[in-house]
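User: Hey, my collaborator sent me this sequence without any context and asked if I could get a structure. I don't really work with proteins. Can you help?
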Amino acid sequence: MAANAQPNAPKTKIPGHVTNGQPASQGQWGRAWEVDWFSLASVIFLLLFAPFIVYFFVMTCHQYGCSLTAPALDIATGRAHLSDIWAKTPAVTMKAAQLYAAWVVFQVILYSLVPDFCHKFLPGYVGGVQEGAVTPAGHVNRYEINGLQAWLITHLLWFANAHFLSWFSPTIIFDNWIPLMWCANILGYAVSTFVMIKSYLFPTNAKDCKFTGNFFYNYMMGVEFNPRIGKWFDFKLFFNGRPGIVAWTLINLSFAAKQQELYGRVSNSMILVNVLQAIYVVDFFWNETWYLKTMDICHDHFGWYLGWGDCVWLPYLYTLQGLYLVYHPVQLSTPYAMGVLLLGLLGYYIFRMANHQKDLFRRTDGRCLIWGRKPKVIECSYTSADGQKHHSKLLVSGFWGVARHFNYTGDLMGSLAYCMACGGGHLLPYFYIIYMTILLTHRCLRDEHRCASKYGRDWARYTAVVPYRLLPGIF
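Assistant: No problem. I've predicted the 3D structure and written it out in structure-token form, which is a compact way to encode the shape of the chain:
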């Protein structure tokens, strides 16, 4: 949103930052320094119940045909007890443990030991060794950007196995879905606990750590900003992109293979979900270098929120549409299917072009054309922790003149298309759009709080020119 004149400048605020002559609190960069009662209650609630939320959605499909109300009705009427539901839930198996361990090790190898070569022959793709944004403590981390390469190698092996090698069934992920969930939970908790201990005993950079004095908040939101092992293995980048997002498209392919096995055909709704979500995933890896400058990398610390979330929440709840369609294959009418496809593609176009406009504006310091015209800007300034005054520009042209977070609007349009591809028979596949609306609205507010603290009166001038966050005329 804030298009800085310096392309590598962080969007986060530095400790001791001064805005318009007034010192800002240290809590303005990264996560909070102090924890209020509401934040602590929210943290404890998520730590206790988020794993059960994931289990609930997966269990309803496994035992109740994806009905969200049937389990509660069974328990309320005495037809079933919680112990009965738990007894029917598959436990972790040696096969699932071996499969999951092999998957994670394979992704670690692709991430850490195979330098990127895609940037050498793919025009327009930026990979290889790249620099991230400046951290709050003033450090610049270097990354080996090779996510697209890892995705391509993984999927080429998947298709080679499906058509030639036959090492395993293409339905292997679906067939071990719940046992794999327990393995993902083990990894999520293990890595979250490890980085917590690491932050106390051997942090990668002590100046980029935040301790609140509250164990639960530290555990969930993270202490270290960029925990690393060795020179290149960055926990935040690895778990944000691999293994969860690489697995996203493989999971959908396994669901499609299971639908083919059960019904003798793959429905057009399943094809839509696979295609639209694959576009999103490939876009993520194609723009992985750009991702180094986003909120996830530039603002969030690495704790349970990202460690467990990327291992469990993302692969299990972002793929609910494909899971639902295994149990309820939906064949959409051609006009409806085309409408869903157009909605998804339009949402992707807005999402990508809005981000492209901002990136172009940053890289050229405004010396570019947006929608065929010289961009309009709001000139602003801020003071860094060392007392130096910096000048910056806020873009108010193109999609950034329509709304302050119009890229999120495009993202939500794509999310809605995934859900609509499943028809209207059940609520479960619509969890994704509900969750994304809450998540992105919260991100809007977090981002704007930091920008208002950073730019002060200049931010007020900007919001007067671009008054809406997501939906012009509404919000």
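In plain terms: Confidence is low (pLDDT under 50) at residues 1-29. You can pass these tokens on to your collaborator as they are.
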